[in-house]
Amino acid sequence: MRFNNLLYIIILLAVSSIAINAGTDRLSKCAITKQVESEPSPEKFINSFFHKYVWGKYTLDRKLAKKYLTTRLAKRLLKDYAEEYDGCDDCFAVWNFRPYGNDGGNDDGVVKVAKINNTNWYAVTQRYCGKIFVLKVKLIKSGDSYKFDQIKE
């Protein structure tokens, strides 16, 4: 009888250990998956920026510019804004991301984002007034996100 109880306890401990390890594996896999998912893809980063600040109604201020733009591009957009308008030290020429710099209509915006070859450049295809335009943007990795570094038409 003692032998059966001892064997039962050993089996119970082994099964519990397997269940605990399996649960730990599941937890660690979930944590790894969530960590990878929290890091945006370059395409999602570009789409989000364009949706909010280029075609959307949000304003890009210095704090947000530090998050989205390299110092080089921020200086260029500040300069471009200052050349067009007076009286704003905290305004960025986000129209440089749009075809012809205009606001566009309701159906305008990003159609597609695609990586160009094996580089940090992306082609951002946009619809503007019924026509399709492609803008090239260069991203650099910054921590666990990205920053826009250059814009080319």
What is the CATH first-level class name? Alpha Beta
Q: What topology, given as strand order, has the largest sheet? A: 1-2-3-4
pLDDT below 50 for ≥5 consecutive residues: which ranges?
A: 6-13, 15-36
The proportion of strand residues reads 15-25%
What structural class do the secondary elements suggest? alpha+beta
Q: Mind telling me the C-alpha Rg?
A: 26 Å
Give the H and E element order.
Answer: HHHHEEEE
| Molecular shape | globular
- The count of helical stretches stands at 4
Overall mean confidence score, pLDDT: 78
**Fraction of residues in H or I helices:** 40-55%
Assigned CATH architecture: Roll
For the largest beta-sheet, the strand count, sense and barrel status come to:
4 strands, antiparallel
Distance between the termini: 84 Å
